[in-house]
Write the structure tokens for this entry.
Amino acid sequence: MTALIRYQAALLVRSQRWLPPFILYAAFLAVGVQSGQPVLDSVGYAAAALLPVAAWLVRICVGGEPPAARTCVAAAAGPARAHLACLFVALAASVVLGTAATVVVTLISDPAGTDHRTRVPMLQAGGAGLLAALVCALLGTAVGAVTNRPVLRSTGRAVPAMLLAALLSMVTTGSPAQAAVSGLVTGSRTGRVPLPLLPLAGAAVLAAVAIAASCALTARRSP
């Protein structure tokens, strides 16, 4: 499995197809996060913007190989394992990106609540932001897994479905991502730093189910 992960990571890096989602994420942060803003609001925004980027990275990873190379890898290692490696690399890239963004956003933000008077511990805020980013990375990976190959093969169906699912995952009440981000916003108003452990557990379960279903469907559809 390690060799498959290294292979997929090398494909992602060398293809440079990761540049558009990374640039889009940087643009989101440049527009929505300014130095001196309340730290919990800022890390919440950074986490929310990561969700569609994570789904996009899944699409890049599962479609990064030429068909002939994909067939060879599937024949050598098994289609499910090869697909799992793609999803793992996409998730890892999302987590790395979200971690880096959260650290930067935490450092440039004001360690205070929305009123700019209530002090908020910076380390606790950064930790909560990292957990929220992980929630959104997991949920974005789940969205990407169920809206791309092998579930949806047509670009005309996959891309709109992915964007719609990412949007609904962010705004639907009860969604782990919505709960994690809204908890940070509420914490910014009250001065209490929330730890989104329950949303993290929910996102982990949803990601595991989506990844397992996607891998099983890959194995079933492979010749």
